[in-house]
Amino acid sequence: YTNTKDFPKSFLWGASTSAYQVEGAWNEDGKSPSIIDMCNHPEGTADFKIASDHYHRYKEDVKLFAEMGLKAYRFSIAWTRIIPYGVGEINEKGINFYNDLIDELIKNNIEPIVTMYHFDLPYVLEQKGGWGNRDTINAFLGYAKVLFERFGSKVKYWLTINEQNTMILHPGAIGTPKGSTLPSKKELYKQNHHMLLAQALTMKLCHEMCANGKIGPALNTTAMYQDTSNPDDAIAAHNWESIRCWNFLDVAVKGVYNPLAWSYLVDRKLAPTIQDGDMEILKNGKPDFVAINYYSTATIAASKNDASDVSARAGDQQIMLGEQGVYRATENPYVGKTKYGWVVDPVGLRMTLRKVYERYNLPILITENGIGAPDVLEEDDIVNDDYRIEYIKKHLEQLQLAITDGVDVMGYCPWSAIDVVSTHQGYGKRYGFIYVDRDEFDLKDLRRIKKKSFYWYKNVIVTNGSDL
Ligand code: BG6
Predict the structure, then answer these.
(1) Is the ipTM of this complex over 0.85?
(2) Residue whose CA is closest, atom 14 of ligand 1?
(3) So which domain of life are we looking at (predicted)?
(4) Which domains does the chain have, with CATH numbers?
(5) Among 195, 78, 71, 84, which Cα is nearest to 130's?
């Protein structure tokens, strides 16, 4: 290009968190345990009981978000705070907490973007079969109704279910409650179908109940590369995208299962039972935008039908692993990697945005993107996270190119606004613009400290991205 387009004036410069990773207060004010609370944690890492103590410190946190200049804050609401038994009685203390948080955001001119479900099913529902039980669809719809009733006049942007594809394709990545075993693939695709129905009904309900409401899915979405120009690699790579991404997004946006992915499911006897009326429900749920979480790309070759399909990894992020007998993950010599082995590929973000927009023609909101690192708190409260600045800067440059390509991008909410518990590495791996002073097990004073990236991102926002 001879000229790149500016970021739109209304661009939602934001940042993200999720309830169980930031709030703490896991059993306070009437909250019941979620499946996450009942999971085993990797040895040596923090659990989610106190996390970053945002539940008690949200006012201070929102103040810092405002100082950083955030125009939007994407957070999740814990179902277990709103309806502790999954269905029925509403917990007013839970409602109050989110009401106060939302009011505080609005007071500070920060647009709330609410994820309705971020991995944290009420454990009481899990005990009744979880998402494998069709009743969970109605339970979710009941929860959604309460959210729209209570917060619909203040919240414009809603996200249905965070990273459904991670939950279905790599359930172990999120954890299984103590004493339970990982569900079979067949069971997982049944759960998937129920989640898709719940999502479609929820999107419809949002449009009925919230006059200005905009709602969309939030999947871990990423482009892939084929390993070589070998046509077999091209087919494998195409399969990967269909099974990992389009199978979920096609249903969310077009209301139909992706034909390639569906054939794969039928061939392997994994296809869910479709009841009368299900396809109509899926057709009637229409998103207003597509949200994507983007961290890495994968590079894919034809399957060798042995363990190397999975072990030759495209990166450590679980969702990037190959699948034996279907496609093989390979190393990409043209991209970098984080300390944790996750592929760093800013151009892949541009590619992903182009593909998603070309396919669905809906505005795109980036709801996660970021780098996990063992940040170090130095003397005089300094955190020199230059690697984070570099990472986000490079991704924003590519985002701007995608906008120039003609993609409609509504906003950018990197992971994470403030340090949160990482699913596998606790506080050893941090993502925030704001440091939380605690260790894995030593809570210290949980003080908030602005990292170098805080000041950098503030300047990006104030200049609307013209000074990256
Ligand atoms: C995303 C999740 O998949 O990745 C977040 O939506 C998560 O909840 C993020 O924290 C980073 O993963 P991790 O394992 O480094 O915390």
Answers:
(1) yes
(2) 423
(3) Bacteria
(4) 12-220+340-462 (3.20.20.80)
(5) 195
